[in-house]
Amino acid sequence: MAGGANFDGDDDIITDINVTPLVDIVLVLLIILMVTASYIVSKSIPMDLPNADTGDESPPRTLTVSVDEGGQLYLDAEEIEWADLRSRARAFASSESEPRAVIAADRRVSHGEFIRIVDTLRAAGITRYAINV
Length: 133
Description:
- By secondary structure, this protein is an alpha/beta fold.
- The protein has 3 helices and 5 strands.
């Protein structure tokens, strides 16, 4: 007997793994996958849909602020001065409904310079930002 008590004195070690339950589970999962895949595919009626002139076709823009190990600042890959960051960020924030920024700093940039960028962006009205790693 594979899993119960052995009373007939035969103390052989079970060396085989019973793969039947594993095969059963894999087949059940395969059937579930096939059934759910048929529901995921959307059934559509072929039709010629009109185009909207006022639709939002472009994804929201993101301001990218980068600083290298020498402290040189880049705004969307354009080299700028620290004094220009606030005015350019403010202009960007006023042109977007939900202004966002991505901050990319070299690993050797001091924590203080990074915080300076964050403070400048927040003062310009950009409160949603991500850190590029």
